[in-house]
Design brief:
Layout (H helix, E strand, L loop, with lengths): L7 H10 L6 E5 L20 E7 L5 H4 L2 H17 L5 E4 L3 E4 L2 E13 L2 E11 L20 H5 L5 H22 L2 H9 L7 E6 L2 E10 L5 E5 L2 E5 L3 E3 L1
Length: 239
């Protein structure tokens, strides 16, 4: 574990560029330049969890991206195992873990390409273990952030979370490699937030609203809108 780093994803990328031969985890007590999706800052005070996994996936790029579902399932599994609170945790498309309806954790995938494949993939995990960001600093539509400590009274250490997350990830990675996306998709949908309810998906300046019907075989969000059934491969989702 590192005392401090700019970003665990950045450090994992540096390890890969230096010739890393196999998968590795990077855990830090503090990030000075943590980031979330679309380059947004991710606040990482000491005591919260910030870690990244770097690996060299063998599949083509469109398959590699489906590991975001494996990451979400693994993180939820780890948190449920540590807290004993399975009903509290839900998964929000594409890459968030919710606790009691608030945003507890985010997952960020970054990759470096090589032809039609991916030279290395970095999966970053950020979990608000003891503190959550100021809601006033977030977009008005964003899910309100929560911390595990405030919601449950439980104080988990980053080391304990990684000790649970790493084997959970290994299990879901093995399922993905052996059986493909189908079992991950089915399990993810079992824990999906707002399934069967109206959600809003924003891509750039365009917002589509509809009933969250499912996630398709390519990982896209499927909405039933007033104009018909649409599959959305990438978007920000709001409730």
């Amino acid at each position: 574990m590192l005392d401090s780093v700019d970003s665990t994803n950045a450090e994992a990328g540096r390890l890969a560029s230096a010739g890393l031969s196999g998968p590795a985890w990077v855990l830090a007590q503090r990030q000075s330049a943590g980031r979330g999706r679309r380059g947004r800052a991710w606040v990482s005070p000491p005591g919260n969890f910030c870690a990244s996994l770097v690996m060299q996936p063998p599949e083509p790029a469109h398959m590699v991206a489906l590991r975001s579902f494996a990451a979400a399932l693994a993180l939820r599994e780890a948190l449920v195992g540590l807290t004993g609170l399975p009903q509290g945790f839900a998964l929000k498309w594409p890459n968030d873990v919710l606790l009691n309806g608030g945003k507890l954790a985010g997952i960020l995938l970054e990759s470096v390409g090589q032809g039609v494949g991916v030279a290395h993939l970095v999966i970053g995990f950020g979990v608000n273990l003891i503190s959550a960001p100021d809601p006033g600093l977030l977009e008005p539509e964003a899910r309100h952030p929560v911390s595990l400590l405030a919601e449950t009274g439980l104080r988990l250490t980053p080391v304990a979370v990684l000790a649970a997350l790493a084997p959970a990830w290994a299990r879901w990675e093995a399922v993905f490699v052996a059986q493909g996306f189908a079992p991950l998709r089915a399990e993810w949908l079992r824990h999906a937030a707002r399934l069967g309810q109206t959600v809003h998906a924003r891509t750039g300046g365009n917002v589509q609203s509809g009933i969250f019907e499912t996630v398709d075989a390519q990982g896209a969000l499927v909405l039933v809108t007033a104009a018909g059934r649409v599959a959305i491969p990438a978007a920000e989702v709001f409730f």
